[in-house]
Amino acid sequence: MNDNLPEPISSSTNFDQQISDYHNYIKSIIPNLQKRKEFYDHLEKLTGENWRPLSTIEQDKSSGSRAALSGNKKEADFRLVMKEFKINLLAQSHLFQLNVDYSIVKDISFNKVRGREKTDHEMVVSFITGEQSIFRISQKTDDIKNPFNSIDRRSVDDYLFFSDEEKKLFKLYSGAILPSEYEYKPQMIDDPRRLIAPEFLEVHQNIMKSSLEKNIDAIFDMAFKFSKRDEKKENVPTHMLFRHSGTNLILPIDKVIKFYKGDGKASIKRTTFHLGRISIQRKGAEKTDAHPDDLQIKFNYTDIFKKEI
Asked: pLDDT value at position 80?
């Protein structure tokens, strides 16, 4: 057997590293027929299942043939098997972190959720007992260049819990209302189109920070759970998957919310308002953006890897 082949999956070692090892190995053996055959055998010993489609098994009998090395059908079969096996690995990784006993699992299906709901994919787990569990997962993937990930964006008017006065102030912040339409003179600000957080009068800053703090539960539910398009609340995520530097971390959504609420205090850092561990920013006025005056909520998803939660 190839010395570089990953060890069988086990909870006794770094599970996510093993998943990563398998993915890297799968990529490396796609061009090599002999390694493919070895890997098929390895999968069969590991799982007790036959992972080779019939057409692939027949072609493997003539391992030196040109058809076996370059046949489109074989390549398609192989990629399909690898896709299925990677889904199997992903499911094992998910269930391992969710403390679900994989030995009593009968079937797993992944369904991508269409639209702009907070849930990205739904994992349906059927057990040999006849029971079924559904995990709705919101996913945040690795972005080393910009770990501050947008988690919500909507108009100030969609913040239904704000008073009329609070909405006016946050519209000044987003750019939906020009400073000249309120009580801010040009010499008081740098940009005549909108105010940055430190430019607000102290009395207005206090109103805005107080509004964020008293509505913290509604703001976090809106940011992490409820899409404005999911009015029936049918696709509310139960868990959030964080992927960073080859490591996957799945946590219940309520635990994620509790972590990012932090101390629950609103503050101003540089040019933006912050609430706990999230920032509430105005959406930049790109020329191609149809709604440059929305509010955008961002968070650093790598923080959760650095803290005990």
From this structure: 59
